[in-house]
Prior knowledge:
This protein is an alpha/beta fold. The chain folds into two domains: 13-82, 434 Repressor (Amino-terminal Domain), CATH 1.10.260; 90-114 and 155-272, Endonuclease, Chain A (2-Layer Sandwich), CATH 3.30.870. The chain has twelve helices and six strands. The chain has a six-stranded mixed beta sheet with strand order 3-2-1-4-5-6, with helices on both faces. A hairpin with a 5-residue loop joins strand 4 (215-219) and strand 5 (225-230). Helix 1 (13-28) packs antiparallel against helix 5 (73-82). The termini are far apart.
Amino acid sequence: MVNRKDLEPESSPSAAFGARLRSLRDERGWTQDELAERIGCSGAHISAVETGRRTPTQRFSASADRAFGTGDRFKRQSEAVRYKVLLEGFPEYLAHERRAVEIRLYEVGVIPGLLQTHEYASALGDSAVKRGVATREQADERIALVAQRQASLTRTPPPLVFVVLDESCLRRPIGDQALMDAQFARLIEFAELPNTVLQVAPFDIGVRRPMTLPVTVLTMPDRSLMSYAESANRGHLERDSASVVSLLTDYHQLQAEALPRAASIGMISQLRKGKP
């Protein structure tokens, strides 16, 4: 075939997506124009996606899944392309988070993304840009992702969301007082939702604290469990039942040691008033 560019699927998520698209197209004997007609775009657009020159959108990926009968395979793979600034492993986690019926979070030092205001997320993004660990485009992508994740919690029926915040999440100032006041207000609003439980793990738990690192535990529609945790370089999704059940036991112990809901809201309200 004239001018057929060799693909290197291992070079990037974009290249892997394009290689799979071409492979399935070749299996069916379709030209780029024939696939384009089925998807609703141009042959040039198909060529650009296959060679990694254009990023596949969610709409494009969903259309490709329908054309090839691949369920949501292309849609899920496109997330690794679009969320290129995220830790390895996190895009895969996001796909499960959107389907989970129960979400359990424990966070240390920073308000978790599912509970952040736009301003709080923006302040973190601005800091990353100033420190040179992210470009402006990357920071904006992360901020947009926060809003997308929060929107997924409004699905019907909504998931049950259990959150335990280490006291350090509340004590660490991000931005000015007005920003923190709005963030505290957001936490209180979240705590009052019918499908949420918010607790604070105070510093004085001390050695009784069963967990010291942030972690997320998901319960899926079939009641299977998985957990997600991050190191400095990547995220890790754990599906081994024995490991996750042990982690869930620690989480329940943490909830027992944490402040009750009313006392947790009381602490947040006191901080809003500027009281220690």
